[in-house]
């Protein structure tokens, strides 16, 4: 089996003022129906921080301040190969909604994770 060229993507651990983390339910492959942090593919010429802010806004309607890189994850499955750089982020504006490829979005307290 030949795997595709790895795709660089970003994710965001977004926290609100109450310390809850933002999770989204994926609406398209890969990971349909899974709850995860918002994120997606890097666009040509886009910085990592700009990609984080754009993906969060597109998927949830929230404006964030992007913080430091917290982890790098590699996912290889079902014909996909992603290298995902996850950042911390803090909400600074917008209104929470589920948009783009997201079925649902909500803030979750740490004990529910």
Account of the 3D structure:
- With 113 residues, this protein is mostly beta strands.
- It has one domain (7-112): Nucleoside Triphosphate Pyrophosphohydrolase, CATH 3.90.79.10.
- Helices cover 12% and strands 51% of the residues.
- The protein is built from 1 helix and 7 strands.
- The strands form 2 sheets. A 4-stranded mixed β-sheet has the order 4-1-6-5, with helices on one face. A 3-stranded antiparallel β-sheet has the order 3-2-7, with no helix packed on it.
- The longest helix has 13 residues, at 48-60.
- The chain is globular, with a radius of gyration of 14 Å.
- The mean pLDDT is 94.
Would you kindly provide a brief summary of this structure?
With 113 residues, the chain is mostly beta strands. It has one helix and seven strands; from the N terminus they run ββββαβββ. The chain has one domain (7-112): Alpha-Beta Complex (Nucleoside Triphosphate Pyrophosphohydrolase).
């Amino acid at each position: 089996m030949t795997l595709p060229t790895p795709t660089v993507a970003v994710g965001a651990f977004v926290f609100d003022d109450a310390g809850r983390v933002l999770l989204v339910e994926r609406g398209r492959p890969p990971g349909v129906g899974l709850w995860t942090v918002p994120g997606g593919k890097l666009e040509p010429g886009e910085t990592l921080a700009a990609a984080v802010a754009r993906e969060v806004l597109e998927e949830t309607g929230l404006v964030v301040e992007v913080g430091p890189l917290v982890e790098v994850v590699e996912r290889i499955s079902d014909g996909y190969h992603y290298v995902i750089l996850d950042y911390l982020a803090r909400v600074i504006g917008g209104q929470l909604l589920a948009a783009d490829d997201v079925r649902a979005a909500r803030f979750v307290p740490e004990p529910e994770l």
